[in-house]
Structures are given as structure tokens and as C-alpha cells.
Amino acid sequence: MTSTPAAAPLLRLxxxxxxxxxxxxxxxxxxxxxxxxxxALLGPSGCGKSTLLRSIAGFETPAxxxxxxxxxxxxxxxxxxxxxxxxxxxxxxxxxxxxxxNVAYGLEAEGTPKAEVRRRVxxxxxxxxxxxxxxxxxxxxxxxxxxxxxxxxxxxxxxRLLLLDEPLSALDRKVRSEMxxxxxxLQHEVGMTFVVVTHDxxxxxxxxxxxxxxxxxRLEQVDxxxxxxxxxxxxxxxxxxxxxxxxxxxxxxxxxxxESGLVLAVDHALSAGSPATAVIRPEDVVLAAPGAGTLDGTxxxxxxLGGTSTVAIRVAGLSEPLTCTMRAVQxxxxxxxxxxxxxxxxxxxVADDRGAAPAAQAPVRV
Amino acid sequence: MSAPAALPARFRKARGxxxxxxxxxxGLHLRLPFWGAIAFLYLPILVVVAMSFNASSNxxxxxxxxxxxxxxxxxxxxxxxxxxxxLIVAAxxxxxxxxxxxxxxxxxxxxxxxxxxRAIAIAPAMLPDLLLAIGLLSLFTLLxxxxxxxxxxxxxxxxxxxxxxxxxxxxxxxxxxxLEEASRDLGASPGRTLLKxxxxxxxxxxxxxxxLSFTLSLDEFVIAFFTTSPTVSTLPINIYxxxxxxxxxxxxxxxxxxxxxxxxxxxxxxxxxxxADSL
Lengths: 366, 279
Description:
Helix content of chain B: over 70%
Oligomer: heterodimer
CATH superfamily of the largest domain in chain A: P-loop containing nucleotide triphosphate hydrolases
Order of helices and strands of chain A: EEEHEEEHHHEHEHEEHHEEEEEEEEEEH
Distance between the termini of chain A: 32 Å
Structural class of chain A: alpha+beta
CATH superfamily of chain B: MetI-like
Shape of chain B: globular
CATH class of chain B: Mainly Alpha
Number of strands of chain A: 20
Strand content of chain A: 25-35%
Number of domains of chain A: 2
Radius of gyration of chain A: 24 Å
CATH topology of chain B: MetI-like fold
CATH architecture of chain B: Orthogonal Bundle
Distance between the termini of chain B: 59 Å
CATH class of the largest domain in chain A: Alpha Beta
Strand content of chain B: under 5%
Mean pLDDT of chain B: 84
Low-confidence stretches of chain B: 1-19
Largest sheet of chain B: none
Number of domains of chain B: 1
CATH topology of the largest domain in chain A: Rossmann fold
Number of strands of chain B: 0
Mean pLDDT of chain A: 86
CATH architecture of the largest domain in chain A: 3-Layer(aba) Sandwich
Structural class of chain B: mainly alpha
Largest interface: A-B, 24 and 21 residues
Shape of chain A: elongated
Number of helices of chain B: 12
């Protein structure tokens, strides 16, 4: 990956491939994760992100490739010998043990002296703010509290790497946003490397330092959230991250030619004549008087969202209306004719790989 | 026009209907067959219990309450020896069947995906006792295995183990598979995971399996009859030989005590399962 950090990585995945029967879950994944990074593996369900996480934890043995932690190979080590801990999607708290015993479980398995176990469990429960719940059983806790216990249990052994499998998916909306902040605070506080698996792009974007976007077992792009949003390198990433206006056409020198013949000016390195898509975020579309912009269209709908409004504009020759986000007070009326200014500086060109996708991404086995 | 008007009416009916509310008291046409079935099930047992307290030695005339036949039971060395044998067999078979059945279930759950091995492991619970008895007798004879208490224990272990396997497998299907992964992830070896996480999760199933094995072995006749030696008899075999000369009142007393033991075991299972579940 081109975005590899300069320092020696904490975790290095090289050429990781895995398949379940005839279904290939991972295709030669290369990835470096640096120490103290909050890293997210993002993708739709079935993209291979969970397989990747379970391979790092030691619950799957990848068919090919190597996993290196601090430069040492991890691939052949059984799960219970890896200095890596995981927070499970179901939390997997032991229902027959108290909160305290759950958190102490990993330390006791290691043979840590009793006094030290007690001290560290106490510290961990304090960190997550559940000191008063030490004697309770997991069944007597709320979803958010259970999640905190699962977190305490996973960090108490001070793993080199903490893996979190869909950590917030089982929580309701309000608790989820609290826990997002909490996870980020905790990661700073304990100074640990977090690798989160999620299908929720908002979650990944708001928490992670860097995000790897996976699709059909391949890495689409590894970048910072801002990088992914502002400079997507594939049509899939542009579509998956945030909302975007996608204008499909053909790459020509200095721009992309739409079906209508209009050429949108945008810098790109695509070969001329190949299918390409111009990506522009709704907030980068600027409305102007009819005829004053790059394109002309008619307002078909407006959605008031509090501080901002989203305006849908139908443009002749485009199958989907373009969307534009703007200050609520300036919204034009439905049916009004408007001009749209598409700034080349805010437009990104990506290859339109939809036609080639089935062959390239999932080789058909006969 | 009529459809939208009809819909709310139907909803109202459904909401007020008997199915959604607390169950209403059923009519006589349901209660009569129900109590008839209960009587059919329990009247014979009730007769045995009542007659065990009959002072008369004639089974068909009541001549007052007496514990005489219970005393008789404890005065008979044959019965006491048979009772001792039965308790030894039932306890030993329960321990063996529970240990082996639990391990079999865990192994099947972890390492097999198809249903064949599962079916093979559970089949002895459903095979006719007679088939199992003849098979075991042939096997013991072939191996020159001396028939006696040990052969009965092994024979009972075979079929009780299948019941334990079935019960533990059913429980395993309910346990969150990530619990074992979490244990391994936290550094526990496979053995420690089995002891600290898997077995405690299976506690209720193991207890009911053990008690079921015990009660099944307690009154098992066919297999014990085939696999024991003529000089060693278990309680059911002893009762059978007594019945051949007519039903004597001691048998009623003995049967009542066995009934009591079984009821205690069943109640104990329920209680222990509840305790284990709340753990």
C-alpha cells in the first residue's frame, strides 16, 4: 500500500488469501497498521473484513500469506498464544461469571498473582466506570454496560493489539454515539492499537485515524477518513463513503465526457476512452443563475435538514438527479431553473469499473 | 368500499378473542377427556401405592392401614441384596454415562458437521432394548467377559450414554459459540476452556443427563436380565421372579419406594437445573 507509515509497522499483513470452499473471502491482502493507530476495516457484509479480523485473532488460518506482529510471524500461533485480544460482536461475556471474574479471566489464565489480578481488574473497571458493578452477572447489566465489561476484559491484559468486531452494532443509537466517543477516549488513555471492523461508514469515519475499505475480499483503498472522502480512488469507495454525485462518462484528455457530449474539466490519469466517473460531493456543488454554471437543471425536490437543506436537481441527460447541500435559507423553490457550478478542484475522476467488475472481482470457477 | 371498513372490525375481534387474552377456563368437553387421560395414566400407580399400605395379605380386600409390608421388604435378604445391586449399577452407570456422553457430545459439536455421527451416537437410546440386550450378551460371551454387576454396569452405560449425549448436544446448540473463542482469545488453553467455560455452560444439561441415566438404570429390566449372571440380580429382576409366584404385597411396597425415589430424582433434576441456570 502506498499509504504505509514510515515507521516499522506494529502489524503487517502480506499477501493474505483465504477461501471458504469455493468462495474466496480474501484476495492477497497487504496492509500495515502502525503502533497506537485507531484503524478501521470497513466494508459491506461479506466483504471479508470479519475473516481478516478473525485471521489476526487466530480463529481462521489463512490459506496463503503471512501475519507479522512486531516483525514476528503470528500465522502459525494458536489463538491463546497471541498477544492480541478481541472484543466480540456478541460481547461473549461468560454468563456464569461475575463482571469481576469475567475481567479477571485472561489474567488468571496467564497465571498472574492474585493480588495483581485484583489490582488490575479494579483499575480496568474504574477505567470503564463500572467499579460498582463488580459482583453483578452479565445478565443483570444493560447493553451498554455489557459492552464496557467486554472492553475491560479485552484491555486488562494490555494486548499489543485490540480487535473490535462491530463493537457498536448491538447498541441503540443514543448509546452508540456515546460509546464512539468513549472508545476514542479510551484508545488515547490506554495507548493501544485498535483495529475495528464495521459496516457503518459513519462509525469508521468518526473514530478511526485510518480506514481500509474492503470490497469482495480486496482492499479498495487505505487512507485517512478525510482522504477517503475527498479523494476516493475507486467508484466503489466514492459510492460507499458518504453521499456523492456520480456522473458517468468516458475519460478524455483533461476531463470526462458525459453522454450528452459535455466535457467536465477534471484532472485525471485515466487512459483516454476508458469508462470513467466524475465524483462530486453535494456540498461542493454550487448553485448559480441558469446558464451561469457548468450544467443547467430544474429543482425537483428539497429536503430541509435543520441547518442545511439538500436540493435534488434534474439535469437533462443524467439518469439520477444531482444533489446539492446548501444553507437552508437560500434554497430555491421546487421547479425553479438553476445553473450548477462543478468546481474541477473539488471533482474527482475514478475509473468506472462496473462493467469489468464481475470478471475482475469474483473469478468464476467451473 | 367495504374492505377498509371490515378490516378494523376484524382487528377488534382478534384483540378481544380468547387467544390473545389470558387462557380462559376450558369447557366440560375438554376437561372430561383430560381427566380421563390422567386417570388412565395414574390409576394403576395409585392402586399399587394404596395396596402397599393394606394390612391384609389379600390384594383385593382392604383391612386397614399398615406399614407391615414395608417392614417385610427390609426383612428379606434377597430384596435387600437386589436393591443394593441396583443402586450400585444405577450410580456407576450414571457416572460413566454422564462423563462419556458429555465428552461425546462436545466432540460431535466441535468436530462434525453432518448428522451421521450424531445419529449413530444417539441411536442406542432409540434402539429396542431387546436388540441391545442380545447384542451385548453376544459380545460379552464372545469376549469371555464374566457376567455380573460389571457387565450390567457397562450395558446400562451404553444406552444411558446415548441419552446424555442427546441432552448435552441440545444444550450445546444454545450456547453462544463465541464464548469458547473468547476464552481462547484471553489466553486459556483448550483444556482450561473446557473446564472453565464449556462445562459450566453445560451444567444443567449434565445434571439432568446424570439423573436421567440414574432413573433409567434403576428400573431397567430387559438389558439387565440378559447381561447379568443367574446369581446376581438387580431389583427389577428380583421383582420379576417374585411376581411369577403371584403379586405379593411386599412388591407393592417396593414399587412404592421405587416410585418415591424416581419422583425425588425428577424433582431434584428440576431443582438443580434451575439452580444451575441461575448461576
